[in-house]
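[job 4471] stage=fold_predict status=RUNNING
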Amino acid sequence: MGKMKQYGARWACLSMAAAILAAATSWAAETPPEADFVRRLSVLAGPRDAILVAAPDGRIIAAVHEDRPLVPASILKLLTTLTALEKLGPDYRFRTEFYLDSHNNLKIKGYGDPLLVSETIGKIARHLATLVPAVHDLVLDDAFFAKSICIPGRGTSTQPYDAPNGALCVNFNTVAFRKENGVWVSDERQTPLLPSVIPKIATLGITRGRITLAADRSEALHYAGGLFRYFLNQAGVRVTGTVRPGRVDPESDVLMWLYRSDATLDNVVSELLRFSNNFIANQILLVMGAEMVGPPATVDKGLQVLRGFYRVDLGIETGRVVEASGISRENRVTARAMLKILQNYEPYHDLIPRKGRQFYKTGHLKGVRTRAGFLSGTDGELYRFVVMCNTPGKNTNAVMTAIERHFEQ
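[job 4471] inference complete, writing structure tokens
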């Protein structure tokens, strides 16, 4: 009888062990790939980092610190551009108006077109040449934007990422130059180097580069006016007077031409994301505020639209957004919030730069590296990922390698 009890107890133990082993085997068959994936990502993440990966159906595959508010850097541009695409529409076109007054002055009224570049100004000048052979003064009207535009996080350096915003800006308020045989020349074939900018270039101590010349509103207008004058002369339109700021009088001035940009908003967004252009991002913010709330454009009006979309349309209650480009360290967004943005970005995902299987936007500030976007699966479906590294010394490379390898299995 004792042996029977002993055998029974041993059998019970063996049965329990077998059951535990079977359960473990079943769990291992179902979850280890994702469980191991999460463990690998957790090891790679620092204390001030966040990672979030989701399946095409929205199911969370991996999450690390996903509700921690972090500095997004330039991946914030995904929120800005999504808001604009939804509020203004992908077919929205920026405009610029051209008037003649009773003294034959040509008045140019800007509405924040971020792509008024040399090629475009040349095209505009050639069309104006078919309408008028000569004008007196060039009068530049930038009243669509408020007089004082202060972008949080933007500095006053001559670096292009610090280019200021305005209603009438050309070439992103920047100029490219080089010194050739002791003479300053333009580093862009299509753009002249205006004599007025050479003294500033000469003080920089460099022989080649691209800088912003528009340190303030008047300098921006002067530079824009100089380029318009140059291209008008090239097209055969004589400018007999001066270039000066002024205002359009809608009651007495005659609208000669309403120019609408060749580029639709989705084209502009594609360029913005491709070059991570802070100037374009904040131009969009300002124009969006003026169009949705009313002119003149201000940062507060733009943020009113941006934050409204973030809170109401997307239903995100966390974080803080203080500008549109991601240049400010005061911005705070969670990985979960970024995932929600990506979910709504899917119809526009082909506007995001692509490399290999990834459609992604990166962000870079000192001590901050971020990446967010889509990973194309073997079946063509889009997986979403957010990687935010705010731990000094960390970057997104190892995490992205782990994510790509996981989906190759």
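[job 4471] summary: Residues 95-263 form a domain with the D-tyrosyl-trna(Tyr) Deacylase; Chain: A; fold (CATH 3.50.80.20).
[job 4471] exit 0
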